[in-house]
Every structure is written in structure tokens, then in C-alpha cells.
């Protein structure tokens, strides 16, 4: 599954650019007014200019946005989103066309291979093992024992739970990658709502707060909280440890994401990168993944690569490292994997994705979209193309739920 491109059905069409409509209209109107309305005309003209200004300002602001990454995934997990954008720049009003120096001088770093090197932590050399596949592919998978200490695991779980608690004050807003996905989810849950595009908050594919709250009891999801390089001391030490142990370069890494899976929740089969036709791939996609289990899981919760015949049982502190792209930057379909449902216990992991080709905004906390309107500390749940385990709760907002996102991504490259 996660294979081909899938994702986002959005049609770029239907939203008429708001700016166009508003800005033209007032102009034509006024001309014909007699002198008395002069002030009115001037006022209208000023408003029109202001509207134009705001429109251009905002569009320059939102285009170059990036995604985060999220693992987030979209459709079939496309991390594409995550990768996409590199050029985020902060919109200065006189933006004109000067290229900011950090953009002009940006040198992308390429990550086309990795190699496990035994490192020592507190005098102990960490043991690692390659996981053998019954099939030949460009994917190499390893486990490294005690990659995080019990203390580190416990602290990461504690921080994660703290954020869940803060965000639990508000019900999440539910977002879907498309209307058909919403329909499929409702059907599967035997919920008899008749839904149409009108049920989405304008400009997004999210449901409003009250509808989201109504649906909440019927859905299950995993929970993800994220932090970015440099936001705490651990992030720096951890990125260095990964680099020493695997050769995965810090500057090719994205955010750090902690995810928890309650009983009954897993995550469907997907690849961490988007599979394209050979040679047509997006190099700013996820080359490799470093996943560490933060505690044991009594039953279930394994990470399985069904096509490679590899299955890893969660064990506290154990790192699972694999590449999803080959040396030429093609996403390897055989890297397909899934998180088995937790049957007993509670699964916690921390993951970081490493990109084949780095980009300017990689590893930087992306700006948040203005839509939908939401409270502070209101979480988001994103569900993509329906399949078991396709909904994920996030403390972080990105652009996956904005209807024209895909069109924007195309313009951004
Ligand atoms: C990028 O590479 C060029 C050529 O090697 C170098 O002159 C420049 O300083 C580098 N820029 C950055 C931001 O490292
Ligand atoms: C929220 O969405 C539902 C379903 O579209 C709609 O019936 C309801 O009126 C909306 N509520 C608000 C407050 O907009
Ligand atoms: C590899 O092993 C898995 C699990 O044992 C199996 O489902 C798959 O068909 C195998 N693939 C090949 C090519 O033997």
C-alpha cells in the first residue's frame, strides 16, 4: 500500500481566489458616481488597495510554507508533505525579489547511505544486529540495543504525557484528507451522517469543533508530540549519538516525534517516503528512519516489514534503524511497514526521519496555518485514506488539512 502516489484528492479548483474577487470589484463600481460620492469613492479605492495589499502579503506568506513533517503523512503516508518545501522565508513587506542570504547560500546535504558503528555509552559498547530479509532489496535494517537509557526513555515518555495532558483540555479538531475518506470512515464506523464538502470548515478539510467532538468517541488514534533540533539539550545530544552510531547526518534530520499507541491502535502499512516511478522521485524525502521503543509492550505493537519478512518486538531503549530510499534517491516500495495494533500494554516510541537531500526548512519548526480557527492548545487529528489505523492525533498543526495544499506544494518547488 503505501506505494504509489495516492494521496490528496483535492481539486485545486473550487476556491476562487478570494483576492481576485474582492480587489476588482470595488474599482469598477466607483467610476460612475457623481461628485458627491467623491469621498466614498476615495474610501473605496483605499479599501481596495488595502485588500490587494493584504492579499499579496498573505499569499507570499503562505506559499512558501513547508511542511513539516511530519510523519505525518498524508495519503498513503506521504511524507511528501513533509519534505516539500524548502524555501520558507519570512515575508518582509518589501519582499520584492531579493533572495535572502540563507537561501542563496544554502548547500543541501545528501544522505545516500548509512553505516552502523558500535558506539560506547557509559563504558558499554552497544550491541547491534542486522535484520535479515528473505528478499533482496536496497533496504538495510538494524537494531541497536540500549540506544536510549531507561532514564532517557522515562523522561521522553513523561514529557509526551505532559503535552497530552495540556492538550487534552480541548477536544481535537478532526481533519480528513478528502471527503471520500470522511465518508469511508463514517461508513466503517456505521455512523449515519450524510456529509458533503459543506461540512468542512471553509478552506480546509477539517470538521468544526462541535462535529469533531460528536465523532470523537467513535474514533481511535495514536498520539504524537514533536520537538525540533535545538529546542532542548536532549535533541542535540541525541542527534549526535545517532550520527556517531549510524552516520546519519544531523543536518539531514527533521523533527523528533514521540508517538504513543493505546490498546487497539496501530498504524497501517506505509512507506516513509513516497513511491514514484524510478528516477522521478523527490529527493527531499525520507531516506532513513531511526525509531526507538521507549518501553516494552506486553502484547502486540510490533514493527513489521511484511514484504521483507522482518518483525521487531518493542523493547525499552531498542533502536530500529532502516533506510527507505536507495542510493539514487528512489523510494523503495519493499520498505513497506506497519505498526501492529497494541493488544496489551501501551506503546511509546520516538522517531526521527533523515532526508536524502536536506532543505532549508528541514528541522525547523514550521509556521502554523491560520486555518482552521482554533483555540490555543487545541489538538488536531488527521485521518488519511481509510484503512485500519489511519488517524493520528498531533499537538502540532501543519498544512495537510488545507484544501489547496497539494497545488501549493507543486508551486513551491
Ligand atoms: C556553500 O558552499 C559554498 C561552496 O563550497 C561555500 O562558499 C558557501 O560558504 C557555503 N554556504 C554555506 C551556508 O555553508
Ligand atoms: C458544525 O458542523 C455541523 C456539520 O456540518 C453543522 O451541522 C453545525 O451547524 C456546525 N456548527 C457550527 C457551530 O458551525
Ligand atoms: C518473506 O517472508 C514473509 C514473512 O515470512 C512472507 O510473507 C513473504 O511472502 C516472504 N517473501 C518472499 C519473497 O519469500
TrEMBL record:
UniProt-recorded Gene Ontology molecular function terms: iron ion binding; L-ascorbic acid binding; procollagen-proline 4-dioxygenase activity
Matching Gene3D superfamilies: q2cbj1_9rhob like domain
Protein origin, superkingdom: Eukaryota
Biased composition regions of type Basic and acidic residues, renumbered to the chain: 63-72, 86-101
Transmembrane segment boundaries: 39-57
Region Disordered, residue ranges: 1-32, 63-101
GO cellular component: endoplasmic reticulum
Reported cofactor(s): L-ascorbate
Domain Fe2OG dioxygenase residues, every copy: 244-356
UniProt keywords, alphabetically: Dioxygenase, Iron, Membrane, Metal-binding, Oxidoreductase, Transmembrane, Transmembrane helix, Vitamin C
Name of the protein: Probable prolyl 4-hydroxylase 7
Species the sequence originates in: Actinia tenebrosa
Encoding gene, per UniProt annotation: LOC116293220
